[in-house]
Amino acid sequence: MRSLTPGVPPPIIMISGKASTKDVIKGLQAGSCDYISKPFQPQEVLARVETQLRLFLGEVSQLQEAAERNVLLLSQGGGGGSSSGGTAPLAATAAACTPMRDE
To answer: Which of 30, 50, 66, 75 has its CA 20 to 30 A from that of 12?
Structure first.
């Protein structure tokens, strides 16, 4: 699936008629951010979508802040070196946590 924001996978909410714990775990391990079993209430789906959007926008914001810090570090250090002879750490991002599976 293509992401709207490079580097940040889009949130996926799986809706399924399968409700066993095994099925929920399988759906989440496949990369889904949330899992809703049928039957469901529309208000619950809306609340879960709003939650995923809040989390997604937070990740995008963190990535933007990290990118700005990285640019600043690189421009100040001329390549990432620090005055103590070590390297200046680049800001970490939290968006690269999507599980990968070999199929």
So the answer is: 66
Segment (H or E) for 83: none
**Cα torsion 24, 30, 34, 35: sign:** negative
Which tops the pLDDT comparison, 93 or 58? 58
Q: What letter does residue 19 receive in the DSSP assignment?
A: -
Say which residues have a Cβ less than 8 Å from residue 97's Cβ, sequence separation at least 6. none
* Cα separation, 13 vs 18, whole angstroms: 14
Which residue shows structure tokens 């979508």? 49
Rg of the chain over all Cα atoms, to the nearest angstrom:
19
pTM over 0.85, yes/no: no
State the DSSP H helix or E strand holding residue 40, giving kind and residue range, or none if neither: none
Q: What is the pLDDT of residues 74-89, one digit of tens each?
A: 988 755 444 444 444 4
